[in-house]
Design a protein that fits this description.
The protein has 12 helices and 13 strands. With about 350 residues, the protein is an alpha/beta fold. It has a 7-stranded parallel beta sheet, with helices on both faces. Strands 7-10 form a two-stranded parallel ribbon. The protein binds nicotinamide-adenine-dinucleotide and thymidine-5'-diphosphate. Thymidine-5'-diphosphate binds near residues 218, 225 and 298. Nicotinamide-adenine-dinucleotide binds near residues 10, 13 and 136.
Length: about 350
C-alpha cells in the first residue's frame, strides 16, 4: 500500500485532491495530510473522509523541521504531494514576507526532510519514492493580448508578484535538488483553478458569494485580463497521472484550455446564477449585472495567462475534460448545497480582510 504525504490538504486544491484520491484508490492507499490551518486551511473541507482508517491529519507548519522529519521517521512515505503555500496574489502584495517563509523556506524543509528519509548511503534514492511540487503558471510572467501566445515548459521564468516570485524560487529549489542530487521529483505548473471548496478571496467564489448577497462585484482595471480556468477535479487527476505516468525530473504544465477575460467570467456567473436559482428564491432578485463595479487595478497586474497543455497530453495522456460552462454549473451547484460552508468561512477574519482589501475601491 502506497503512503502519501500531502501538504496543504485542508486548502482548496489539496482537499479536492484528497477526495479524488480516495474516490480512485479507496483503501489501496494511505494519506497523511499535514497542514498548519492558516486562514485558508479548513478541516470542514474533509469532514466526509476524516474518519477513514487510511487517513491521518497532522497539524504542523511545513517550516517546522522537527515536525516534518518526525512524520518521515514514523512513516514509510512513498509519495509527497506538496500543495502547502500562501496562494493569494493580493495578500502577497500587502504582506510578502510570509510568502517567502512558507513558499520558499517551507519547500526547502519539505525537500530536505524527504531527501534525508529517502537517500541511500551511496547517494541514490530508495526505489519508487517520488516528490511532486505543485506550482503555478504565474512563474512565467504575463503574455500579450495575442490568442496565439502560450506558456510552455520551456518558457523562461519572469515572475512579477511577490506570490509568483516566491513560487518561482520554490520551483528553482526543486530543480536544484533534481540537478544536484538526482532527487526523484516532478514540478507541475497549473493555471487558475476553480471548483468546490475554493476560498472566496479568489475571483470566482468571491463573485458567486457577492452576487448572491447583492453586494458589489469588484472588477480590477478594465476587466480584460485573461486567465485560463481549470476545473479543480481535472487538476487533481492530472497530478496523479503525472506522478504515476510522467517522466521523473520533468516539468508538466496543466491548463484548462479555457481562456476568458475576467469580465466574461463575471457575466457568465451572473447569467448562470439567474438560470439556476428557482423563481421563488429571494436571492434571484439580488443577482444582477448592475452590481458590476470597476475598481482600482491590482498593482503589477499580469495581463494574460494561457497554457498549451501539449506535453502532458502527449506524454501522460491527460487533457482538461471539463469545459467552463459545465464546470461553473457544478461549482455553483456545490455552493448552493454548501451555504453553511460559505457562511462559516466568511465570518470572522474574512470580514476584516474584505474591508481592508476593498475599502475605497
Ligand atoms: P489554498 O490557499 O486554498 O490552501 C493552502 C493550504 O496550505 C491551506 O490549507 C493552508 O492552511 C496550508 N498552509 C499554508 N501555509 C502553511 C504552512 N506554513 N505549513 C503548512 N500548511 C500551510 O491554496 P490552493 O489554491 O489550494 O493552492 C494549492 C497549491 O496550488 C499552492 O501551492 C498554489 O501555489 C498552487 N496553485 C494554485 C492555483 C489556484 O488557482 N488556486 C493555481 C496555480 C497553482
Ligand atoms: P485571482 O482569483 O486572485 O487569481 P490570480 O490573481 O492568481 O490569477 O484573480 C483572477 C483574476 O481576477 C485576476 O486577473 C484578478 C481579477 N480579480 C478581480 O478583477 N476582482 C477581484 O475581486 C479579484 C479577487 C480578482
Amino acid at each position: 500500500m502506497r503512503t502519501y504525504l500531502v501538504t496543504g490538504g485542508a486548502g482548496f486544491i489539496g482537499s479536492n485532491y484528497i477526495h479524488y484520491m480516495f474516490k480512485k484508490y479507496d483503501n489501496d492507499i494511505r494519506i497523511i495530510n499535514v497542514d498548519a490551518l492558516t486562514y485558508a486551511g479548513n478541516l470542514e473541507n474533509l469532514v466526509d473522509i476524516e474518519n477513514r482508517d487510511n487517513y491521518t491529519f497532522v497539524k504542523a507548519d511545513i517550516c517546522n523541521k522537527e515536525a516534518i522529519s518526525k512524520i518521515f521517521a514514523e512513516n514509510d512515505i512513498d509519495r509527497v504531494v506538496h500543495f502547502a503555500a500562501e496562494s493569494h496574489v493580493d495578500r502577497s502584495i500587502k504582506n510578502p514576507e510570509v510568502f517567502v517563509q512558507t513558499n520558499v523556506l517551507g519547500t526547502a524543509v519539505m525537500l530536505n526532510c524527504a531527501k534525508a528519509a529517502w537517500e541511500l548511503p551511496d547517494g541514490s534514492f530508495k526505489e519508487g519514492k517520488k516528490f511532486l511540487h505543485v506550482s503555478t503558471d504565474e512563474v512565467y510572467g504575463s503574455l500579450p493580448d495575442d490568442e496565439n501566445a502560450f506558456f510552455y515548459e520551456t518558457t523562461p521564468y519572469d515572475p512579477h508578484s511577490p506570490y509568483s516570485a516566491s513560487k518561482a524560487s520554490s520551483d528553482m529549489l526543486v530543480k536544484a535538488y533534481m540537478d544536484t542530487y538526482k532527487f526523484p521529483a516532478n514540478i507541475t505548473n497549473c493555471s487558475n483553478n476553480y471548483g468546490p471548496y475554493q476560498f472566496p478571496e479568489k475571483l470566482i467564489p468571491l463573485i458567486i458569494n457577492n452576487a448572491l448577497s447583492g453586494k458589489k462585484l469588484p472588477v480590477y482595471g478594465d476587466g480584460k485580463n485573461v486567465r485560463d480556468w481549470l476545473f479543480v477535479e481535472d487538476h487533481a487527476k492530472a497530478i496523479d497521472m503525472v506522478q504515476e505516468q510522467g517522466r521523473l525530473f520533468e516539468t508538466y504544465n496543466i491548463g484548462g484550455h479555457n481562456e476568458k477575460q475576467n469580465i466574461e467570467i463575471i457575466n457568465i456567473i451572473i447569467e448562470t446564477l439567474q438560470e439556476m436559482l428557482p423563481d421563488n428564491d429571494p436571492r434571484k432578485a439580488l443577482v444582477s449585472k448592475d452590481l458590476i463595479t470597476y475598481v482600482e487595478d491590482r498593482k503589477g497586474h499580469d495581463r494574460r495567462y494561457a497554457i498549451a497543455p501539449d506535453k502532458i497530453k502527449k506524454e501522460v495522456g491527460w487533457f482538461p475534460e471539463t469545459m467552463f460552462a459545465e464546470g461553473i454549473k457544478k461549482t455553483i451547484a456545490w455552493f448552493f448545497e454548501h451555504e453553511d460552508w460559505m457562511k462559516n468561512v466568511t465570518s470572522g477574519d474574512y470580514q476584516k480582510y474584505y474591508n481592508d482589501m476593498y475599502e475605497g475601491k
